[in-house]
Design goal:
The chain has four helices and two strands. It is mostly helical. Strands 1-2 form a two-stranded parallel sheet. The termini are far apart.
Length: about 120
């Protein structure tokens, strides 16, 4: 009888089970972390006062409900490319902002009027 071979198989099988259990625990922890991040994102507090689309920074835009880093950057890019926003509805031209999202954003955004142009000299 050779008990050594059977014993090494049992240890190897036990190690595989522990490794598999550890992998399951790591994956479970990762899923929990992802879910918590999603919950925190869903629970972010909107700004206390409306944010001016013509003056907002990327961080300020990210405070808006449903606006993450990608959409915030798209808003800034649109402002840089096309100039000042004239109406809140101008956000509809930005990929990722639907009519539904615009309505959710409306209470939290504003569009400032353009600065007065310098008076012409006679």
């Amino acid at each position: 009888m050779n008990f050594g071979a059977d014993h090494s198989f049992a240890v190897s099988k036990g190690m595989m089970t522990r490794t598999r259990n550890l992998a399951v625990e790591i994956l479970s922890a990762g899923l929990v972390l992802i879910l918590l991040c999603g919950i925190l994102e869903a629970q972010k507090r909107p700004p206390a006062k409306p944010i001016d689309l013509n003056a907002a920074t990327i961080k300020e835009l990210e405070e808006l409900p449903g606006v993450g880093p990608v959409t915030a950057q798209r808003i800034l890019d649109a402002r840089q490319k096309s100039g000042r926003f004239r109406r809140i509805e101008d956000l509809l031209a930005i990929r990722g902002i639907s009519t539904k999202r615009l309505e959710a954003l409306r209470p939290y955004v504003t569009v400032s009027p353009p600065p007065p142009s310098p008076a012409k000299k006679p």
